[in-house]
Amino acid sequence: MIKRIAQTAGFTGLLAALLLTLLQSFWVAPLILQAETFEKAPIATEVAHEHAAHMHDAQAWEPEDGWQRVLSTTGGNLVVAVGFALMLAGLYTLRAPTRTAQGLLWGLAGYATFVLAPTLGLPPELPGTAAADLALRQTWWIGTAASTAAGIALIVFGHNWLLKVLGVAILAVPHVIGAPQPEVHAMLAPEALEAQFKIASQLTNVAFWLALGLISAWLFRRNRDGQYSA
Amino acid sequence: MSIISSTSPTARHTTTLSQRLTAAIGASILGACLVYFAGFSHIEAVHNAAHDTRHSAAFPCH
């Protein structure tokens, strides 16, 4: 069972991370690099200075633009993708997909949990955008993902309407509380660039999650060793 | 007598619900740790390395 989870997660993570890197390199990363030219410009406002000081601490290692940066982003993608794939494969041991196409639904649920719900309160941001305290935002993000996961699970797997209603309520809680917002909304990059980045990020993440769900369901079913009848 | 011995091979292949739950929870926690490390860690070098991953995935960054 553990071997099946590890194999599914490992190969799924690898393939999905490669797809993600490809999409990012052509679409998302150029927008980030473009935004950084505003961030590093000498006329940058106070927000930028605060931001830059916060970001480029002392002599912390930083990949150089070019192959180093692409490689380290690929590494980051790989760790994140294997992490998400481990969660999916773990859940499959409880609810094995009966068809490979069901992986798409798992992928959509993952996208809703880890991208769509958090970005309703904290939209994808380009470097150089003013934001509330990092720890507060991270806490809200994690809380939102957790409640969205619990909410979706109750709605989909709940056996009676009471559980489903509870699921909807849990889903809504973080949005009623509201995401931490900065005192002043400000950004260095032009709004058009930010808008483009939001679309690029969302679509890239949809593709990533659909691939993650589909590949993981396919591999999980392929590695079937007769342990599960479902 | 033969009935008893014939049940053992199938019993060997079934996993109990608690075993599956343990595997599911274990895998999920391990997965969450990986995502946290790459996406949320406050270690500066990790942040810099996974910077573009974080922005692209819409994780809170900076």
TrEMBL record, chain A:
Pfam families reported in the protein's UniProt record: CbtA (PF09490)
UniProt key word Mitochondrion: no
InterPro entries: CbtA_put
Domain of life of the native organism: Bacteria
Residue ranges of the TM segments: 70-91, 103-120, 140-157, 162-179, 199-220
Keywords assigned by UniProt, alphabetized: Membrane, Transmembrane, Transmembrane helix
Keyword Transmembrane carried by entry: yes
Alphabetized NCBIfam families for the sequence: CbtA (TIGR02458)
Protein name: Cobalt transporter subunit CbtA
UniProt source species: Pseudomonas poae
From TrEMBL, chain B:
InterPro entries: CbtB_put
Annotated Pfam families: CbtB
Keyword annotations: Membrane, Transmembrane, Transmembrane helix
Record field: transmembrane: 21-39
NCBIfam families, per database record: CbtB
Name the record gives this protein: Cobalt transporter subunit CbtB
Species per Swiss-Prot/TrEMBL record: Pseudomonas poae
